[in-house]
Amino acid sequence: MNRITSLFGIKYPIVQGGMAWCSGWRLASAVSNAGGLGVIGAGSMCPDLLREHIQKCKAATTKPFGVNVPLMYPQIDELMKIIVEEGVKIVITSAGNPKTWTSWLHAHNIVVVHVVASSKFAMKSEEAGVDAIVAEGFEAGGHNGREETTTLCLIPAVRKATTLPLIAAGGIGTGQSIMAAIILGAEGVQIGTRFALTYESSASQIFKEYCLRLNEGDTKLLLKKLSPTRLANNFFKNLVEQAEAKGATASELLELIGSGRPKKGILEGDLENGELEIGQIASLFRQQQSVDEVMNELIEDYSRLSKMRYEW
Asked: What angle do CA 122, 262, 75 make, to 5 degrees?
C-alpha cells in the first residue's frame, strides 16, 4: 500500500486513463473490478450520457472509480452537478486551471487529481490544493503537453517540484515501464493506450485492430497551434501534417479539422477521415486482450521484476 492506493481505496496503483470515446462504463468497471482505478471519460459525453455511464458503472462494480473532466468542456457546470448527484468520489481534471473547481469539489468530499505536462504546472496544481498529480509525458496518445517532455525526464522533474502523490503517464503499458516510473519517483501509473485496445474499451473494433498493427514512428504529435494531439498515420493525419508544413494558421487548422473527427475515427472506425488518437506504446502490442488479462500481466511482470537482484 502507498499514498495512491490509500487515496483511492484500490488494490494496485494503476489508474486507467479517462480517454474520450474509449473510456465508458464497461472499461471503467472492469479496471476497478481488477483492482485498479477505472475512469469514465466525460470529455466525449453529453451530461445525460455521463449520468447513464456513472449509473451503469455503479451497477457493475462496488469498487472505487473516477470521472475524467476536461476543464474546457462547454457544459462543465452540468457535468460537475451530475458527478455530485451521483456520488462520484474521485475526479481527474485536465486541460485547464485546477483552481477553478478544486475547492468546490473538495466541499463535496471529492478527491481531485489534475493532469500536468510540466513541473511548472505541477507546482500550480499543488497551490490549487489538488490531492494528487498525473504527470503525462510526450509519448502519450490524444491531447498532450506543449513542452514535449518525455516521461523519463518529466517524472523526476515533477517529483523534485512537488510533494504531492505522483502518478506517471505517457508510454506506460508494461510491468517494466511501471517499474521504471516507480524508480523515477512516481507512486502509481496511469495507463491509456493499453486499456484503449482491450475488448472492454468502447472504441471501434476497426480502430483497435488498426492500432494493433502500428509500428514505431506511426504516430506523431501535431496540431500544436491548437491543442497538441498525437495522431496515428492515416489520410487525415497526412492532411494536417501537410497543412502545418505550409504554415497553416490556427483558424485554418480548425477549418480543416471540422467537427466530430475523433468520434469518426475512434468510435466509428473511419480509418481515413477520422482523427486516430493513440500513444506511441501501441507499437509494442499485437494481440487484443481483456482488462483482466492486461492487469494480470502488468502485476505479474512488475512483481517478477521487483524480486530480481542485479549485479553491477
From this structure: 65
13-38 pLDDT, tens digit each: 999 999 999 999 999 999 999 999 99
DSSP per residue over 56-89, as a string? HHHHH-SS-EEEEEETT-TTHHHHHHHHHHTT--
**Distance between alpha carbon 283 and the CA centroid of its chain, in Å?**
17
pLDDT of 140 above 90: yes
55-85 residue pLDDT tens = 999 999 999 999 999 998 889 999 999 999 9
**Residue written as cell 466509428?**
268
DSSP H/E element including 94:
strand 90-94
pTM of the complete model: 0.95
The DSSP symbol for 190 reads E
The rounded distance, in Å, linking the Cα atoms of 274 and 287 is 23
Q: Is the pLDDT assigned to residue 308 strictly greater than 80? A: no
DSSP 18-52: --TTT--HHHHHHHHHTTSBEEEEGGG--HHHHHH
100: number of Cβ within 10 Å: 12
pLDDT at 312: 43
Q: What whole-number distance in Å separates Cα of residue 154 and Cα of residue 29?
A: 30
Which three cell numbers mark 36?
Answer: 485498479
Identify the CATH number of the domain defined by range 3-203+282-300.
3.20.20.70
The predicted model gives 43-65 an average pLDDT of: 97
Give the count of beta carbons closer than 10 Å to the beta carbon of residue 159.
20
Q: Helix 291-307 and helix 175-183: axis angle, to 10°? A: 50
Cell numbers representing residue 69 in the block: 473532466
How high is the pLDDT of residue 72? 87
Distance CA 200, CA 292 (A): 10
- Domain range list for the chain: 3-203+282-300, 205-280
